[in-house]
Amino acid sequence: MSTSQALWLMVGQFQLLLACGWAGALRWSTAESRLALRSLAGFNALCGVGMALISQRGTLDHGLTTIGSDLCVAVAFILLWRAGEAHFTRGHVVNGPAQGVALAVVSLAILWFGQAPEDARYRVMALYLMIVGVCAWNAWRGCRILWAKGDRRVSFAIAFTAMLISTGLLWRGVTGLHDWQPAQVEVDTLFNHLLAHVVLLAIVLVNVVFVYFFMARIVRRLHRLSRRDTLTGLLNRRALFEALEREWARSTRTAAPLCVVCLDIDHFKAINDAHGHPMGDAVLARLGRVLVETLRGSDIVGRTGGEEFIALLLDTDAAGAQQIAERLRQAVAQDMVLRPAPAERVTISAGIAARGEDDAAAEHLVARADAALYAAKAAGRNRVVLAGPGRVRAAASPPLVLGAG
């Protein structure tokens, strides 16, 4: 076995190991990443088989080591195309027909030009053009997404990888068109040695890029889980108060109005006792959806614990906050029905505090809203109460009667 053959065999074995790694990752994958992982495992496995067949040229059957290796590489890069699309679209492949057509065209070219040795250059050129197209498409899609997110270093790394692969293949293909002799990558030449190392480097970079993509998605998911309430999907207490501090600083800097609304489900313990904790969880989850649907897109809402919620109404004065809270109270009473006959509805009480000159910190604003919430409960629940700077006064809107249809 020549040195070039040994190098191609080493590249093939390395890719087969990578295929095993991607296949093993399927055990911990989510539904949206499963197709991409399978495609990557298939890409490395087929490409590894193709490289191994290249290493056996001159030893095994000519058709198997030339046409067979080229077909393996062609299918492998179609799977790489599929992996990139599945990752960027979160498991949905929309270019399946285009991938099938590309594979059919390249496969026909390989079979047609694979019969005569003097036509090897056309077979190789067709395969190289497909590989360049797949690499360019994946690189363009990935760079565009990462550039939009501000991750320019990784964008440059992806562009460099695609340029490395495309330049090498195009140069090899174009120079091969002027050479009537078939490409003999298994022969010991300096170019073939360099080509094997460049292919190995490109394979490493392609897999590293996809590892980065998957790790970045995992990190984003973990970050989201660390800041979200698992039951309602709203911000948790930590994330909500971080947002409050941020908006407090912005309000201080720009003199923009800021209001805090503390919400609480009325008689929530009675709901749990009468209907069970699964129903209580369903009520909390439904309230989270009602809050998101009723509040404005600029508002920030989170669950601070138990049946307690806090909403931050940005750029809103006391009168506007009272209207929003009243609309929210009515939406909950009308939407959330535990039992139609006799009517049993879920209601909420709300306390509002608008930032004033006496508020020295964000915690003071929350404390006044919380005091207004307790005043709403003491006044009979199912109502909105607006807190004054040093006192609490009831809202002018009449409360909805508890249990009314």
Give a brief outline of the structure.
The protein contains twelve helices and eight strands. It has 405 residues and is an alpha+beta fold.
Short key terms for the protein model shown above:
two-stranded antiparallel ribbon, 65% helix, alpha+beta
Describe the structure.
Residues 391-405 have low confidence and may be disordered. Helix content is 65%, strand content 10%. The chain is elongated, with a radius of gyration of 32 Å. The chain folds into 2 domains: 3-227; 237-394, Reverse transcriptase/Diguanylate cyclase domain (Alpha-Beta Plaits, 2-Layer Sandwich). By secondary structure, it is of the alpha+beta class. The strands form 2 sheets. The protein has a 6-stranded mixed beta sheet with strand order 2-3-1-6-7-8, with helices on both faces. It has a two-stranded antiparallel sheet with strand order 4-5. β4 (337-339) and β5 (344-345) form a beta hairpin.
